[in-house]
Amino acid sequence: MQIRQIAAKISANTAVRQHCYKLALEAPTIAQAACPGNFLMVKISGATDPLLRRPLSIHRADASSGIVELLYEVVGTGTSILSQKKTGERVNVIGPLGNGFSFGSDMRRRQAVIVAGGMGAAPLLFLAQNIKAGGITILIGARAKSQLLCVPDFRKLGCRVRVATDDGSYGFRGRVTGLLEQMLVGKPQANPVLYGCGPKPMLRAMAGLCSKYGLDAQVSLEAHMACGIGACLGCVVQTKQGFSRVCKEGPVFKISDLVW
Asked: Mind listing the domains of the chain with CATH numbers?
């Protein structure tokens, strides 16, 4: 995988719900090289504030059109500035970066279950686009119906979509990992391929379910990053083999390798 730094032209920057935007960039060389689980380091402005780039997961990449999409939430100064950028402007990006998801031939014959918590849906749509499994079930969790992301997008791909909301405003009432356990209990003989991305408590609960049911999963971690290329050691996590960098050895890890 060849990493590139380019000034990508913005083709769209649209709100998908409150405080959440989808940024579409004209970046053919990145679109052709990207794999599910990769991310970009995005330079927000030409000024020194904010100084650091922001790591954003690749939400979707289309090699034929050269468009790369990033789904992001406005949580601070940097993403607030990014949300105000207009079509035709350019942003400097580095990527594709990181190690992504694995979905080899042995996995393609099994059912895939993808677990998305909140903004964890961001890298998982690209994954669902690329895996050709014996059926894809996507479990999407959010605090409330208004906070759900990508439900229509996953359905357009032909995925079976089940939803959990903490407040019960839509779908299953409770955590998305409760929905996952309900599914695992209902099919004790199944051996699904599990993927996930979401907040740490969700992933910790998912790790517990994997241990309980004798399964493993690949999960994408979120982390604050300064460089995105493994040089600054600012995004390390503890694994059973020692410390690993989310930007370099990750962001995708086997859930059984992580220390929770």
From this structure: 4-97 (2.40.30.10), 105-257 (3.40.50.80)
Average pLDDT over residues 82-99: 97
Model confidence band, residue 51 (pLDDT cutoffs 50, 70, 90): confident
Confidence bin at 48 (pLDDT 50/70/90): confident
CB 218 within 8 A of CB 132: no
Please give the angle made by the CA atoms of 257, 161 and 106, to the nearest 5 degrees: 45
Identify the H or E element spanning 178: helix 176-186
Residue type for 35, please? C
- Sheet of 217-220, strand order: 172-173, 160-165, 136-142, 112-117, 193-197, 217-220, 252-254
DSSP states along 18-48: TTEEEEEEE-HHHHHH--TT-EEEEE--SSS
pLDDT of 111 reads 85
Question: Are 188 and 159 a contacting pair, CB within 8 Å?
Answer: no
Q: What is the pLDDT of residues 106-157, one digit of tens each?
A: 665 678 999 999 999 999 999 999 986 667 999 999 999 999 999 999 999 9
Q: Considering the entire predicted model, what is its pTM? A: 0.94
